[in-house]
Structure prediction request, 150 residues.
Amino acid sequence: MLNVEREGSQAPKKLRILLLSPRGPLYRHRTGIWKKSLRYAPLTLTTLASLIPEDLNAEVTLVDEGISDIDTNIETDLVGISVITGTAPRAYELAAAFRRCGVPVALGGVHPTLMPNEAMRHAEITLETQLCYGYYITSGSVREPSFTFC
Prediction:
């Protein structure tokens, strides 16, 4: 199990996990090709959050960039980005921003599953299925070099 120790603290703190759904060319916050707002609730981020074991005692934040902006300066220990092909360029931009700050990034979804060699250049880890995500979170391998998990 992964525990995060903050500088100057005695006890492990909650692992701060940020799960992101980047904007794409069709459904974007304030822009895009649709004249009217398209409102629906994708289940990807909530499904991923549900796979995090309770005993990990993680603090999870979900951000869908189709609804609100993503703050790349947010304090977090791990970023998970759900990627489809249409959102891959934006996902890679976000991954680069977080990695420059020393935050490990995990990419998962259809695009990293179909294009793992491309995705591995942009993250510490690529995840081939949602089930792999749950195993990865509990494996303690957040700081390992890039590889495909599961």
The domain at 16-149 is CATH 3.40.50.280 (Rossmann fold). Residues 143-147 have pLDDT under 50 and may be disordered. Strands lie at 16-21, 59-64, 78-82, 105-108, 125-127, 147-149. The radius of gyration is 15 Å.
